[in-house]
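pasting for ref. prot 1 ->
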Amino acid sequence: MEIKILGNNHSILDQYLSEIRDENIQKDPLRFRENLYRIGEIFAYEISKNLKFSVKEVTTPLGVAKVPTLIQQPVLATILRAGLPMHYGLLKIFDRAENCFISAFRKYDDEGGFGIEFEYMASPSLDDKVVILSDPMLASGKSIEIGYEALFSKGTPSHVHIVAIIASKIGVEYITENIKAENVTLWIGAVDDNVTKKMYIVPGLGDAGDLAFGNKIDSK
């Protein structure tokens, strides 16, 4: 697995990362979602450099230009619900892409622990297609692992790009230990050192789904 970290390189991505972390800016859910859209667009642009292109002749009003064009759009997969804003940003760039939606959630027990429950998936065939699997936070890594494994119920992708805006160190370690395939690239905005007992990333940004869409009642 190849790992690519885009943050902390003095690009506009760092500005957006600072804003989604800022507890005062977070009070505006519209701005929070807009920043996730824009971050998704940046990831899409960077990932596009790794896709296959062919040179096409395009007729202009004044002649013919030879331009590289994308051979095949990727399939965009996301984990509901927190992944939706970043997914929309990816979709704005890959605007003709097929889409895959995966429902996975934290189910808490009476002792306060939790497991990740896989519930639902809607997807086209993924055979021999490039898939971009996105979730804004990679904390324990288990949601991404479940999402990744779920993809293979719909076919065998040629390559999987996993995208997370903020990851924890233990989450990155978990993913690299449990997803051994060489045709996987992990894209990250920033890596934070710590997690809480409930597996929220520290310093992180809080609960991305709640910040984007409002508070929820945890499943028991």
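and prot 2 ->
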Amino acid sequence: MKKLTRAQKRDIRAIAARRDEDIDFSDAPAVLDWSGAEMGKFYRPKKKPVTMRLDSDVIAWLKADGRGYQTKANWLLRNAMLHFTKEASVSRRKAAARRAKLRGGREHE
């Protein structure tokens, strides 16, 4: 992301200082159809610098496409995290269902 110019920073401060009641929205039509909206599109989790020791062939593979290898590594790790979190959640639900079924079976004996 490019750094903001002094003028842009000044404009942002001026807008932030205004009260909601003082903003004229008459030229902006109300959005009535949200079917094309994308949740989380602009969500950016806080980044934290880390040091990791990775195999050299893994680093070479990540860097093979050029710039953005750290972003690529983060994307891969996030997808693995979501996959395994989902898998663990499904396993917990299945285990709970089995336990409930077993409890239910013993109650009917």
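The mean pLDDT is 87.
Residues 69-107 form the longest helix (39 residues).
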